[in-house]
Amino acid sequence: MSHRVELIITLGIPILLILLGRFVGASIERRHYESIRERETRFRRQPALSTKQSNTIAVIGSAQLVTGSVVVSVDHFKRFLSRFRMIFGGEIRSYSSLIDRARREAVLRMKESQPHADAYINTRLETSTISSTSGDEGVGTIEVLAYGTAIVFESSKRGRLR
């Protein structure tokens, strides 16, 4: 093989993979955000509150522990950009959107585990990173766990949260 062909293969394949990651990753992220917004609309009348008690005049008929978790990975294009950004400092927006998607998805999965609850109280989020095993690869994936208490008001005394 000529030196020129070798150089094209050596540089071209990684660049091609990075660009492929950009377009596929952006498409997956866009579809995920669309799904999140649609599902959040369905649950908009069922709040997830961080308070430990319900501030209602209604009688609670049942309470149940609910959980939802998600593991989300960053695509290679965002990983490449984040490494470049770390040289100069500043916010790494690609990781910010990753965490935003993961947190919102975990809360939705928590709500979907008990979809007929009137509210979810004492809601908490735990976030952890799962790094790859090879030293300086950076964040590979993040896991978010959402948990809380799903409450259902007695049907004869249904109230609204204040």
Features:
162 residues, alpha+beta, Translation Initiation Factor IF3, three-stranded antiparallel β-sheet, 3 helices, 46% helix
- CATH structural class: Alpha Beta
Task: Please work out how many helical segments DSSP would assign.
Answer: 3
What is the H/E string? HEHHEE
Strand order of the largest sheet: 1-3-2
Number of strands: 3
Write down the overall mean pLDDT.
Answer: 83
Structural class from helices and strands?
alpha+beta
Report the portion of residues in β strands. 25-35%
What is the name of the CATH architecture? Answer: 2-Layer Sandwich
Largest sheet entry: 3 strands, antiparallel
- Binned, the helix content reads 40-55%
Kindly, what is the distance between the CA atoms of the first and last residues, rounded to a whole number of angstroms? 74 Å
- Under CATH, the topology can be stated as Translation Initiation Factor IF3
Shape descriptor:
elongated
Name given to the CATH homologous superfamily: Hypothetical protein apc22750. Chain B
Count of discrete structural domains: 1
Unreliable residue stretches: none
Radius of gyration: 22 Å
Characterise this structure.
The chain is built from 3 helices and 3 strands; from the N terminus they run H-E-H-H-E-E. The chain starts with a helix and ends in a 9-residue tail after the last strand. It has helices at residues 3-42, 76-88, 93-113, and strands spanning 60-73, 119-131, 139-153. The protein has a 3-stranded antiparallel beta sheet, with helices on one face. The protein is of the alpha+beta class and 162 residues long. The longest helix has 40 residues, at 3-42. It is elongated, with a radius of gyration of 22 Å. It has one domain (3-157): Translation Initiation Factor IF3, CATH 3.30.110.70.
